[in-house]
Write a structure and sequence with these properties.
The structure holds three protein chains of three kinds. Chain A is an all-alpha fold. Chain A has a single domain, classed as ABC transporter involved in vitamin B12 uptake, BtuC, CATH 1.10.3470. Helices cover 75% and strands 3% of the residues of chain A. In chain A, strands 1-2 form a two-stranded antiparallel ribbon. In chain A, helix 5 crosses helix 6. In chain B, a hairpin with a 2-residue loop joins strand 2 and strand 3. Chain B starts with 6 loop residues before the first helix and ends with a helix. In chain C, the strands form two sheets. Chain C has a six-stranded mixed β-sheet, sandwiched between helices. Chain C folds into two domains: 165 residues, Rossmann fold (3-Layer(aba) Sandwich); 77 residues, no CATH class. In chain C, helix 3 packs across helix 4, helix 3 runs parallel beside helix 5 and helix 4 packs across helix 5. Classes of the chains: A mainly alpha, B mainly alpha, C alpha/beta. The interface between A and B is large, with 44 and 45 residues.
Chain lengths: 306, 325, 250
């Protein structure tokens, strides 16, 4: 176990963390305002990846593909919010979960129909196909760029939420939606804006994940479930919680999978370690979530309700 | 006491009579396919019945009950892999593992409520899924083939018909058991907790322990369903624990009629038959479209689920029963 | 005679706000102790601490000689504190009788009973019917809660509280939303209960309070500014200034 290998895994963990944050931010804000969870958020991420891959193949320009993917996912998000999800806000959680479950099935099958059942590949842009050297360590520039973009988006969101009027309304909506409507703000419209932004961020995440993961039907759900772990761990409705939760989950999962089996081999018998290591590593983040919930039932950074 | 003209009596009676006679009909027309199709349906009905006990009557919307089906299946798979063929051992292992797992998971999830409960049950099921994938020695991603069905002495599960009746017998037993429990003190506490938990606490009920017990019982019946599923397919796979299976169980419940005891049985029959028909049925009216539907049948299921949620929330059995009363 | 309930120096803070400020009072068996105060005085916060839904930051709640401040809501209910709610908290899926039976069941040991059917269990049905009779609702025993009138909901709420055989009743606005006639019946009912229980009554209906209460505590901004008999309260200049005057002027 070398220092370089460890640093690489930490960077990989950060990269997973910022991707999860992009997904968690939109989901947690909409939950805060409308008390609604859209399980099909992972489908928006998948659609972002497909839009990006298709646009990149058609235009040959990664920047154009990025713009198209984010915009298209945002529009798609707006459409499903207005057509289907809006009817669910007043329903109970079971209905919300079930209807968005139906949406997932539809999206996965539509993708299969248009792009086929097997995965399609997407290259990183030419300019980012090389390596960056950092502390004597080579790391792919594209992955580095993901971390950079993710942190930049997090910083931008922080500014929007803490420094603008829109952000003030979002924060107020998350802690007391009724009061915001009483102030004469159209909470539905506010929510649609936030939903569209969340969809755009999911599209951005899909776009960035495209070149490093295979783009395939059903790619959204494992990520979505990780995102739910992030949200619950961080504290439902809190963007700050989503940010730290995402980084913690990303790091623990990546570093755990890489090193737990090795660490176990140092302490217990090799054959048992080889069998148990990956099994325990795969459970780490869920155990972490369980511990967090046991100690702080509302998550690490709960929203204060006023 | 039973009113013979009430749909609460004759609908379940007719469906159960149909299920009891199905193997005979299947033999008569020489279509053994019906028995295997309906074994699958009964396994899902059993799991959905178990889930409905906590979901429909206790208000615990678990989106992770596939976890327990998977655990039951892996108990059979892993023991068979190590040469243990005794079915009673399989069954005991499945129930114990399911019970222990459900107690640990339940201790965390039952304390929460609402959306958090849904999200973390989903997360824990995914944990089981990844745990199964990580078990490379037991097939990992590919799953685990089971050489022979569990040996239960005189009950020879090797015969498809015997397996069918074994599942049916368990289903009927569980219907009876849950019916008794719902009318007993335990059931009233469970239903009261769903209706108004705050009031239950103020009356003096420590609701957590009752909800946790119901959760564990429900999970253990699901592991029983998993035991049968593994015997039916002779296979244990991580895909049994996939999130979509948990979703399907909820769809079955809502389709059949949430909060009705018999609803899940009807829901399982309708949903699985619908899936079967969509995948293979070609009436030849418009072949190009039929081909697309056969291949992409999940679109239809997805839309169907959305429509059921938006417009038919009482479910089929709920509709039949309430219309008559 | 020692008090049934003795609240000593109770303090509850929410951030910078002190919602309950050094509250102390006593309730004896056979006595109705009313708590009145303007909106926002902290009555609900106080009741919630007595029932166990909120934990006080400081102070003692001594019930029948033992400090119950650390007990959970169900533990306090089993210890003998019966609570009725401001907004009827009843089980809408059940009949009136089933609602009261649940209350009886709560006090009849654990409920890990899986086979014996509740509907035919006289150990539950008999006391439940008796409680319904006490509040004058026996004729509606088999009606679904949804079919009951608002006043009947209040009666049912009280029947559920009584069925738990409490020694102390926490009645949170039992007259809320009632017609004049229903109120009068409820006043008579509560007066008839007084002998066997200690009662804490939180109520906005001043006619009812002055008709029923043996002693009244006036709560303003979380603090009890005056405790006394109805006549003393009527005559108190402090109360008039802090509360009654304010109310009349509003």
């Amino acid at each position: 176990m070398t220092w370089g290998l460890f640093l690489t895994q930490v960077l990989n963990g950060l990269q997973l963390g910022v991707l999860l944050f992009l997904l968690a931010a939109g989901l947690t804000l909409v939950f805060g305002i409308m008390n609604f969870v859209n399980l099909a958020h992972g489908s928006l991420y998948m659609m972002g990846a497909y839009f990006a891959a298709a646009a990149y193949a058609a235009t040959g320009s990664f920047l154009a593909a990025a713009a198209i993917a984010v915009a298209a996912t945002m529009i798609l998000g707006l459409v499903i919010e207005r057509v289907a999800l809006m009817r669910l806000y007043a329903r109970d959680h079971l209905d919300q979960v079930l209807a968005t479950f139906g949406l997932i099935l539809v999206f996965n099958e539509v993708v299969r129909y248009i792009w086929g059942p097997s995965s399609i590949y997407m290259n990183a842009p030419e300019a980012l196909s090389g390596q960056v050297t950092l502390f004597g360590l080579n790391y792919p520039s594209y992955r580095f760029a993901i971390i950079g973009v993710g942190l930049a988006v997090a910083g931008g969101l922080y500014l929007v939420i803490n420094r603008t009027r829109l952000g003030m309304l979002i924060r107020a909506g998350a802690s007391n939606a009724e009061m915001v409507s009483a102030l004469g703000v159209d909470i539905r419209f506010l929510n649609t804006m936030v939903f569209a932004m969340g969809a755009g961020l999911a599209g951005l995440a899909g776009l960035m994940a495209g070149p490093i993961l295979s783009v395939q039907p059903g790619m959204g759900e494992p990520v979505l479930i990780l995102t739910l772990v992030v949200i619950v761990t961080g504290g439902i409705g809190s963007v700050r919680g989503a940010f730290y939760g995402a980084l913690i989950v990303g790091l623990v999962d990546t570093v755990g999978r890489a090193f737990l089996p090795i660490v176990l081999q140092l302490t217990i018998e090799r054959s048992i370690a080889q069998a148990a290591g990956p099994a325990i590593a795969s459970m780490l983040i869920y155990l972490l979530m369980a511990v967090v919930l046991a100690v702080r039932p509302a998550g690490l950074f709960p929203v204060r309700h006023g | 006491m039973a009113d013979l003209r009430s749909p609460r009596f004759w609908v379940p009676a007719a469906v159960l009579a149909f299920l009891a006679l199905l193997p005979a009909y299947s033999a008569l027309v020489g279509q053994s396919f019906y028995v295997t199709l309906f074994t699958r349906i009964l396994v899902y009905a059993l799991a959905a019945l178990a889930l409905n006990f906590v979901l429909g009557f206790g208000g615990l919307v678990s989106f992770g009950h596939a976890l327990y089906m998977g655990l039951g299946a892996y108990a059979v798979g892993i023991l068979s892999f190590h040469g243990v063929t005794n079915g009673w051992v399989h069954l005991a292992a499945a129930l114990i593992v399911g019970g222990v797992f459900a107690t640990l998971v339940g201790a965390v999830v039952v304390r929460t409520g609402g959306m958090t409960f849904i999200m973390i049950t989903l997360a824990f099921a995914q944990m089981g899924y990844f745990l199964a994938v990580s078990l490379k020695q037991y097939g990992g991603d590919d799953g685990l083939t089971i050489d022979a069905r569990s040996q239960l002495g005189i009950v020879d599960l090797g015969s498809n018909t015997v397996l069918y009746y074994a599942v049916l017998a368990c289903l009927v037993a569980c219907l009876w058991l849950f019916n008794r429990m719902l009318g007993a003190r335990f059931g009233y506490v469970l239903r009261g907790s769903k209706s108004n938990e705050r009031r239950m606490l103020a009356l003096g009920f420590p609701t957590f322990r009752y909800k946790l017990s119901a959760y564990v019982m429900s999970a253990m019946v699901c592991t029983l369903a998993g035991f049968f599923l593994a015997n039916f397919t002779k296979f244990a796979s991580p895909s049994y624990m996939q999130w979509s299976v948990s979703g399907e169980l909820i769809v079955i419940i809502v389709l059949g009629g949430m909060g009705t005891l018999f609803g899940p049985v009807i829901g399982a029959i309708v949903l699985l038959l619908l899936e079967e028909v969509l995948q293979g049925y070609r009436p030849g009216l418009f072949p190009p479209l039929e081909e697309v539907v056969n291949k992409h049948w999940q679109v239809v299921i997805g839309l169907f689920v959305i429509l059921v949620v938006l417009f038919a929330k009482r479910g089929l059995y709920g509709f039949i029963v309430e219309r008559r009363e | 005679m020692t008090a049934l309930l003795s609240v000593q120096g109770l303090i509850k803070r929410f951030g910078g706000l002190t919602a309950t400020d050094q509250v102390s009072f006593e309730v004896h068996t056979g006595e109705i102790h009313a708590i009145i105060g303007p909106n926002g005085a902290g009555k609900t916060t106080l009741i919630s601490q007595l029932a166990g839904e909120l934990r006080p930051d400081e102070g003692r709640i001594v019930f029948e000689g033992r400090d119950i401040a650390a007990l959970s809501v169900p533990e306090r209910a089993l210890a003998g504190l019966g609570r009725s709610y401001q907004i009827s908290q009843i089980f809408h899926e059940f009949t009136a009788l089933e609602n009261v039976m649940l209350s009886v069941q709560a006090h009849a040991g654990h409920s890990f009973s899986f086979f014996r059917q509740v509907a035919t269990d006289p150990r539950l049905t008999a006391p439940a019917l008796e409680a319904l009779r006490k509040v004058g609702l026996a004729h509606r025993a088999d009606a679904r809660v949804a079919a009951l009138a608002h006043g009947e909901h209040r009666q049912l709420e009280l029947a559920m509280t009584l069925a738990g055989a409490p020694r102390l009743l926490l009645l949170d606005e039992p007259m809320a939303g009632m017609s004049q006639k229903e109120s009068e019946e409820m006043v008579a009912l509560i007066a008839s209960l007084k002998e066997r229980y200690g009662i804490i009554l939180v109520e906005h209906d001043m006619d009812a309070v002055f008709a029923l209460a043996d002693r009244i505590s006036v709560l303003v901004y979380g603090r009890i500014i005056f405790t006394g008999t109805p006549d003393e309260v009527r005559g108190s200049q402090a109360v008039r200034e802090a509360y009654l005057g304010e109310e009349e002027g509003a």
